[in-house]
Amino acid sequence: MGKMSPINKMVFSAVLSISCSDSIGTSGVETDLKTFQSLGAYGISIITEVISRSDTGRHDTAYLPLAMTQTLLDAATKTYDVKAVKLGYITSKEVFEAALNLTLSSPIVFDPSFLYFLSPSSVSGLVDYCRLAVSRSTLTVLAASELLHFFSVRPEIFQDSEKSIDILRSHGIDGSLLIHIDSSVVPECTGTDVLVLTTGESFIYRRSSTSQFSCVRSTLSSAIAVFLSNGASPEEAVVKAFTYLDGLTLSSGTSINQNPLNHGWLMKVKAVPPITPSKPHPFTDILLSRACGIWQTYINHPVCQQIAAGTLPLEGFCNYLAQDYHYLGHYARLHALAIYKERTTPTDELKVNAVILNAIATELDNHVSLCEQFGVSKETILKTSEDLANTAYSRYILDVGTTGSILELRVAAYSCLIGYGYMGKEMYRRAKENDTLEGNPFQSWLEVYNGPKFWDAVESGRALIEEQVAKEDIGDVQLDRLVEIFTQATRYEVSFFNLGLKPLKTVNSTPSATETI
User: What per-residue string of b and e applies to 75-109 under the rule 16 or more CB within 10 Å gives b?
Assistant: First the structure.
């Protein structure tokens, strides 16, 4: 069986954290997983040891057996297509080497900051440990002070990036390395330099000085891992990771242990949930739910029910068809406006609009054919006065389309498209169920809106609007506006169907003294 995804058919980037579990949540896998989620990655973790500590210091540590850690590593890498690995607090060289051997096919970011806080007797060969990390990982994150501590490197090497590379390699460091430099190490440094060393190349990223490097370092390396998982180069990943850190803020408190970083600054609750196999039309579901009352009135309109039963007076039906003939002309113009408002060459959008316009043309032909069956010519349809309800509706959607965004335009048109689709299927079902389809004078009308050609237009339009909403990632205010447009257009649909209760009236008709709107 292939490697699994947590949500079927959803694209995600799996990033693995191998580190300790920190009881106060300011380092270890807790910090890594917060960062992964905030940046949109799917985080998985392997805990190497559990650390009990508080603001006053470290109290106790429990280590996971090496055999168990190796089993977890093997299971994680076989289950998921791991795109990047963050190696953090790992005090066992055996565990570290096992992690490297199992994950070498993925970008690896190593943060050995914990070594700086251990006594030399705690881990054998600290220098060898760090050299191994630098040589085997994609990018190792170090502070310049740590290089001074581990390798007895002189501060002046950081004045010249090329010289830095030569000297670091002479100490056995031959790989990609991120070095954080500030005035505490190099007095001449007025701000903060981040020096990224790669094979034969160097990259210096200068930024304003920050006093938070030590407390955000675990988050920095986690963020770099996420960006590497998405295909960024080490240099690009570093710049993006620091941009992410710029948004981190501290809550109130007196120390870093009392001030957990706000990893959620980039996250927000989406106004519209993502498209999933179980919820393929989340935006449509929201529209129909929030416009529920008027929506039910629309798709269960008395005129629609009389059409399904075959009992609607022919004069009223012909008036409805004649008014809809005029309306569909405006509706077609709205879709032409949608094409005009696209800022690029929208191949997919053109195809969808072509499907919808083709469905409109079919509707127009069917309207004329039906009216002629009932003794109303196309000439009479063209001479029919446009009812004020028709004028109000058509001008409303055209006004939204002209003054609003392309998404607002599509929502203004959506009530008609999806409404006729849902209503058409429901009325056709009722006619079949009640044995009123055969011999029904409006059978061809029912078959059009229940038929595959019209439903192809409905599904194409629905897919287009769902994809656009997902792409734009709309907020609550914008969603409220779109619901308002959809609800108002649905109200107009109800008023429009009321025209089926009125007689046909041509332009030359003389209004009666008692005529009402």
Answer: ebbeebebbbbbbbbbbbeebbebbbebbeebbbb
pLDDT tens string 262-286 = 676 666 667 898 888 888 999 999 9
Integer Cα distance of 38 and 411 in angstroms = 31
Domains of the chain: 14-137+211-266 (3.40.1190.20), 282-501 (1.20.910.10)
Other beta carbons within 10 Å of 110: 29
With 0-12 / 13-18 / 19 or more C-beta atoms within 10 angstroms meaning exposed / middle / buried, residue 310 is middle
Cβ atoms 488, 496 nearer than 8 A:
no
Neighbour count for residue 319 (Cβ, 10 Å): 22
Token output for 67: 């055999």
- d(C-alpha 114, C-alpha 21), whole Å: 13
Instruction: Give the bridge partners for 234, in sequence order.
Output: none
**Top-confidence range, 15-24, 337-346, 369-378:** 369-378
Contacts for 486 with CB less than 8 Å, ≥ 6 apart:
287, 291, 411, 412, 414, 415
If one compares 198 and 298, the residue with the highest pLDDT of the two is 298
Residue range 457-465: mean pLDDT, rounded: 91
Nearest to 207 by CA among 235, 237, 239, 248: 239
Q: Which of 84, 175, 93, 99 is nearest to 137 (CA)?
A: 175
In this predicted structure, what is the pLDDT of residue 443? 94
